[in-house]
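Figure 3 (text version): structure tokens given as input.
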């Protein structure tokens, strides 16, 4: 809501970036004959698929909300993005709205990026929001 309010007040548009890892980090080594490990692998794959459904639903919800609020929006899903890819996507932005839980562990979380350091490097105002 805060991002939509900002966009309306500033006659701006929104760029929404969803970041995800290619796969959830797996722990340990799986032996083909290890039934428990094989079942956990399937559960992990199911969890990844469920997370992708949540991401897709959130993207669709944002598109509908933007249309209802008459706000131009661009939504992208970036898989294992590099710092340079993120910097490129954020170039030209006036501020960054970010999930206040972006640094907490979660499935499909991108581990190789220190988002807070990257955002400070950009020098844009950062507004943490609850989602």
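Below: residues designed for each position.
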């Amino acid at each position: 809501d805060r991002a939509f309010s900002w966009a309306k007040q500033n006659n701006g548009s929104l760029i929404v970036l969803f970041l995800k890892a290619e796969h959830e980090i797996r722990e340990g080594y799986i032996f083909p004959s290890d039934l428990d490990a094989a079942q956990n692998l399937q559960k992990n794959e199911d969890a990844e698929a469920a997370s992708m459904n949540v991401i897709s639903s959130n993207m669709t919800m944002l598109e509908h909300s933007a249309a209802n609020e008459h706000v131009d929006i661009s939504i992208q899903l970036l898989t294992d993005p590099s710092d340079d890819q993120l910097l490129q996507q954020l170039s030209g932005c006036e501020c960054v709205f970010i999930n206040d839980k972006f640094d907490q562990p979660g499935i499909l979380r991108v581990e190789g990026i220190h988002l807070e350091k990257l955002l400070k490097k950009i020098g844009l105002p950062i507004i943490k929001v609850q989602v």
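The CA atoms of residues 6 and 12 lie 8 Å apart.
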